[in-house]
Amino acid sequence: xxxxxxxxxxxxxxxxxxxxxxxxxxxxxxxxxxxxxxxxxxxxxxxxxxxxxxxxxxxxxxxxxxxxxxxxxxxxxxxxxxxxxxxxxxxxxxxxxxxxxxxxxxxxxxxxxxxxxxxxxxxxxxxxxxxxxxxxxxxxxxxxxxxxxxxxxxxxxxxxxxxxxxxxxxxxxxxxxxxxxxxxxxxxxxxxxxxxxxxxxxxxxxxxxxxxxxxxxxxxxxxxxxxxxxxxxxxxxxxxxxxxxxxxxxxxxxxxxxxxxxxxxxxxxxxxxxxxxxxxxxxxxxxxxxxxxxxxxxxxxxxxxxxxxxxxxxxxxxxxxxxxxxxxxxxxxxxxxxxxxxxxxxxxxxxxxxxxxxxxxxxxxxxxxxxxxxxxxxxxxxxxxxxxxxxxxxxxxxxxxxxxxxxxxxxxxxxxxxxxxxxxxxxxxxxxxxxxxxxxxxxxxxxxxxxxxxxxxxxxxxxxxxxxxx
Amino acid sequence: xxxxxxxxxxxxxxxxxxxxxxxxxxxxxxxxxxxxxxxxxxxxxxxxxxxxxxxxxxxxxxxxxxxxxxxxxxxxxxxxxxxxxxxxxxxxxxxxxxxxxxxxxxxxxxxxxxxxxxxxxxxxxxxxxxxxxxxxxxxxxxxxxxxxxxxxxxxxxxxxxxxxxxxxxxxxxxxxxxxxxxxxxxxxxxxxxxxxxxxxxxxxxxxxxxxxxxxxxxxxxxxxxxxxxxxxxxxxxxxxxxxxxxxxxxxxxxxxxxxxxxxxxxxxxxxxxxxxxxxxxxxxxxxxxxxxxxxxxxxxxxxxxxxxxxxxxxxxxxxxxxxxxxxxxxxxxxxxxxxxxxxxxxxxxxxxxxxxxxxxxxxxxxxxxxxxxxxxxxxxxxxxxxxxxxxxxxxxxxxxxxxxxxxxxxxxxxxxxxxxxxxxxxxxxxxxxxxxxxxxxxxxxxxxxxxxxxxxxxxxxxxxxxxxxx
Lengths: 470, 470
Known about the structure:
By secondary structure, chain A is α+β, with helices and mostly antiparallel strands. Chain A has 4 domains: 4-91, 2-Layer Sandwich (Uridine Diphospho-n-acetylenolpyruvylglucosamine Reductase, domain 2); 99-216, Uridine Diphospho-n-acetylenolpyruvylglucosamine Reductase, domain 3 (2-Layer Sandwich), CATH 3.30.465.10; 220-337, Alpha-Beta Plaits; 345-432, Alpha-Beta Plaits. Chain A has helices at residues 4-14, 23-30, 49-61, 116-123, 140-146, 153-156, 159-162, 193-197, 234-245, 257-266, 300-313, 327-335, 337-344, 359-373, 400-418, 433-439, 442-455, and strands spanning 19-20, 40-44, 66-69, 87-91, 99-102, 107-111, 128-129, 163-169, 177-180, 206-213, 215-216, 220-228, 249-256, 281-289, 319-325, 347-348, 351-353, 378-379, 382-384, 389-391, 394-395. Chain A has a 7-stranded antiparallel β-sheet with strand order 15-12-14-13-19-20-17, sandwiched between helices. In chain A, strand 19 (382-384) and strand 20 form a beta hairpin. The two termini of chain A are 20 Å apart. Chains A and B meet through strand 9, helix 8, helix 9, helix 16 and helix 17 of A and strand 9, helix 8, helix 9, helix 15 and helix 16 of B.
């Protein structure tokens, strides 16, 4: 519990309503979207950058450790306190201003606490959107801090590609505020300090304001479910779509039979789109165009059917079936996978990322390993094939020792065997600290910690290396 | 001149031919593509990463300052020594291996000394290319170190977007070698140390190997020269093309009348494409598709004509004329601009970058300022409108005091008045040191220097801040 003197001082800095001490009110801030909840000494909710600076400076001067938090939708335990009850949660959820849109510039400048849904609602009348597409509704500050990816990464990239400017508060005794670029698309007049804060997960400081590039919304969309010959055919199919659809290709999502079956069995609103039974593997492909249909133009649905039709007729037999239908219906299966898995049993999730050429071989080796050593777990993987990301999820026993052994086996095969990343798009947090300590090269840890130390004490949820004193 | 003991030691490290002392042989390494030449104590040309490490470690231990150099095509004096004759040139031009292409992965891993032309020649048979398009033929190491942009930035982005992995040698006593990622598209399992070296211009260390994402080559291209109503119409036209052409839009280059006229007058091979005289301003627009023409599909030329035709008929009158023709002919004018300027007189070049909404207003204010205070200079600007980049070039007197006053006036208006960058895509080097010292916020300088100091002593051609002891 926070000392009375700190309570009073922090309450004075953030005003009434800005300091949450009541355990019931704290709970939402203490409980991550995945993994067990922690305990906060208090939740502090500054409403302005100046208040963030004052709070952070106070915390550093008095040795109070804190964890910055946006919408608390992260999946790496990077935004919640540990169980000690000694850490503060520094919630940025009141930083909901500004929300400024510059249509001609195709940029938006928002407070770190602005939600993705709020930004997109404000952009919609202008025909614009931030195309980073994911299941949750995070804040823009959280998205920048974790370098969010998502299902349309292959076309639009990650947050790093969109962040054109940041305002940050450093975890030092002064709560130093830094403006790192102002929304220029091109700027090589200074070194890339800003890039450290993108994906930095609070280790370098707290993001208080973000300028992002936004895009024109699609005005035409077509989608299909493809059935490849086998898992080895997926990458050649992707290459064919990359050429034939070019940059109109906006999604290419792999779905395993086990993941699809669980969604179909456990999500009542979902019907089985496959007449002939669920295939071993499927790919959801999506094409979009930013323009309205033009006279004389082949429709996007027809283009998709042409491309798939040509592939179905080819001798190699890479593609064995293709289902066309309304876009929402095609995506419904993909969007139900996580819910289906959770409803079917306890999930051990891995957010792995590979060189995409390694995806099929890793899966083959992993399946053999799992069959031999972990037959009690069912592999229900799906992923973003084009960028090498795999949500390598397993459903099975909750016994901690067994789970730890499974985690160890999967990560060792992926990271040591294939040079994979153990956190493709979920960022760093307490949940990955053991993997970080074990798999990140010691030299990289040392330099990361030394660079972070230049900026201050950082977040209590991420420890970058042994050289760092926190 | 380099002491005999250092000569012997460095020659032993890099072998015969690896150390150049002869003034005639040194000249090409001492003379930048723009600005006056410097003088090197010697040129050291290691042939492997291990040799780079040995040389750099030796230099740091004995206090020899050095400047890393790729193809020496940079425009910021970042790869050549000053006039003191005390700095070594550390040329990476012998690091021409590996040159490995992974077609399925759409990546290439190359030595820092591999030229862009060599990479593209190796990629061409696979239908791939690195789409960063610029006038020179730099090395991949130099492109990464300066975060090169180019004429197709609006579609493909800069080097930062393409670099998936780096091997670097730090400027410390051990010549520490770091591998920063291995070619994953998504990796949030570590903080973004790699990003510091992209655009770091040698301040953090020396890039010895690069893994880049590459793209499918266009199989259809269409181009046109558009005549906008006036400079204010350019941005609305860009917005219309962004919607109507979507991601098939690969270039949108602005050309001023003065720049075009000088090219037409001074480049013998170039003919005037405008029947009715050179307009006040023109835009080169390019669309591309990665697929071969398909049956029933409207050709890309027709699409471009449709979009331009609709704009010509619109009431707003944003577009007053459009010229269609072979792609090479359309680009010939754009590609001749620099040559035309140089042939017409001495050039003062500025590589500015703006929020694109500010481009027209800056130009208007700059024209008024130039007419009032610098009527002896002719503005011959052209630029990458879509990403806010302007090559704000002026032709006029070479008198140093007058040039310095002009430079001061333009940069003050651009940077102080509009938050522009004084180096949009040319990186940092000795030529911009005064601008860096003056315009980069002191706090940003301090943190940049402190972060660089974590990694070592860095390049002698870039000084990031007063806190740094070099």
